[in-house]
Amino acid sequence: MSEKWMLENLIKGQNKINFSANGMINWVRATSILCNDQKLFTTDLKNNSNCVLSCDFNDEQKKLIFKNFFFSMYEYTHLARLVHENIHPYDILTAALTSCYKSIIFAIKSMKLSNTECRYVSIEQLINFYQTELINKDILPIPFSIGFKDLTKKNTKDKIKSLKNNNSYNNNDYPKTKEMSWGASITFLNGTRDYIAERTEERLLNSSQFYEKNILNFRTKDAQSIRDKELALKSVNFLAQIHRVYSKVNSDEIVYIAYGGINPEKLKQFILDLKKIARTFQIISGRYISHKCSSQEWDCFIQDFEKNAAISLKVQHLKW
């Protein structure tokens, strides 16, 4: 039997998988480093939250807002416990990634519910809400405010060039500074745009619309026009990026990592970074919701959690 039977026989294209796995690790590291900026916890966060207008909610809507935020806290508790127990990083990789993603998703659902009563939303609807209501209205601080709408090639090229702003770094290297992290983050944003565009093209090629027109590729102006109309309505941002990372939870990249493709120290840091990102986003979303509701209702929610929830999470980061 070969030395690494699983990788050599079942996982093909290891160079591509290595590139993809390291890209995921590097983007999470970059986002975590950008979360270190103290401005995020002082001026930016305070000023951005103050832009949020309070609303009156009916009882059902209020219940859904706080219920979803509770589940965000619960998922974060899972992640914090995994980190606290200092478990072998390879054993908890997918669990940590899942808890981080779900904590962020529940927080964003809670934010969306504070804008509309619609309780059932797709990931694409959440991504568009994130762009339209949070980024475009300057609610979010960096790194969560990086993104743009209209994923056509020309607009993407212009936006990425503007965001990069002559930064020479990309997502191929493990970031160590804020400047490296910015370059890595924008490169991964561009890659996520390509990821969304590729899946849009795949779906269109398999659609009845293309079948009826006998369209087999995107070489014709008609096919390009249909694709670009769809891409013009789509957005790429932090939520699209973390969703892309989460989509790898049962992928070849995870098998590659589990067989030692990423060294244990780097993987341990990856899990710590996931925790920091989830915690930081929870603070931001909590501030948003407390402004949307009222400080009194938010305080009641937090005090009730502390007193009655049989969960170990300390909620000092959600008091202000």
UniProtKB/TrEMBL annotation:
This is Uncharacterized protein. It comes from Paraphotobacterium marinum.
